[in-house]
Amino acid sequence: MEEVTPQPDQESTPSQEASSQESATAPARAPRQPAPPPIGLDGRGEALKALLPGPLAPFEPEVDTALDEVVVTVASERLLDACATLRSDPSLSFDYLRCLSVVDYEDRFQVVYHLWSREHRHKLTLKVDTTVESPSVPSVTGVWRGADWFEREGYDLFGVEFPGHPDPRVLILYEEFEGFPGRKSFPFHDYQEW
């Protein structure tokens, strides 16, 4: 409804005054909130969770869920064989590595692989733990070429070594940089508030 402002030589009518008061006191509409992310597995996730213990049985995985993804944890020494199975088994076909990240839990590091099957359209999170004293996880670049820069970043920032990586050059930091700035224990001495 259009608000009418009385002219100096005109008087406002009662309906114009009521309309003006309504618009001034009407509550503002709340901004539209995005829908919350789904919590729990959908049908594909449930089917994948039921399927995994078969093909992955030789690797003694822990199979769990987190939000809307199936989560599998394997031992470091079984990682390459588990990854090869996840990629080559026709019922799984995890042919795309979405992301690889390193998490510092202070008492251990965890390398996390986010996988996707383009054929079956299901997703999976694969986790493997390694020690803080000698962090090392076999390179999966032979399974997913896209792991190349992710693994190099994991070394630069956290010091996790990926034996078998074809090109372990520094990616983010300069060659002479000392330490691993992604670690929680890395000191930030030079930080100044501007």
Q: Helix proportion of residues, in percent?
A: 10-25%
Given this structure, which CATH class of the domain at 43-158 is correct? Alpha Beta
Examine the coordinates and then state which fold CATH places here, giving the name of the CATH topology of the domain at 43-158: Beta Polymerase, domain 2
Can you summarize the main beta sheet? 5 strands, mixed
List unreliable stretches of 5+ residues. none
CATH superfamily of the domain at 43-158, please?
A: NADH:ubiquinone oxidoreductase Nqo5 subunit
Radius of gyration: 28 Å
The neighbouring-strand order within the major sheet is: 1-2-5-4-3
Question: Total number of β-strand segments?
Answer: 5
Strand content: 15-25%
Give the helix tally: 5
The separation of the N and C termini measures 49 Å
Average pLDDT over all residues: 87
Secondary-structure content class: alpha+beta
The secondary-structure element order is: HHHEEHEEEH
Give the overall form: globular
CATH architecture of the domain at 43-158: 2-Layer Sandwich
